[in-house]
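Sample pair:
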Amino acid sequence: MGEFTKEAGNPLEKEDVLLKIAEEGASSLIATKTLFRFENNRLYYRRDVNESLRDLEVEHPIKESEITPLIDQTWTEVFFYGIGNKHIAKPTPKRGQ
C-alpha cells in the first residue's frame, strides 16, 4: 500500500508508476509506503516515509518488524469464564458493609 504524490498522476492508469510501490528504495512519486511481507509462515511489517515529502516529526517510518500473534483467551475460555471475567475489577465495599 502507498500514497502517491500528485505528480504521479493516476497510478491506476500508468502501470510503470504503479509498480514503483513494489520497488525497494525511495521514489519521488511515493510519499508513504506500507509493506507486509510473508516469509516462512511469519508476517513482517514496515512503513517507509519519504522525508523530502513528509514531516518525520508527524509521520514516522517504522523499521521492519515481525508481527506476532497474541492470544489472551481462546473463544471457549471467554464463554466458560465469562466475557471479560479477568479484566473486571472487584467492587470496593462502602463503609459499614
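The radius of gyration is 23 Å.
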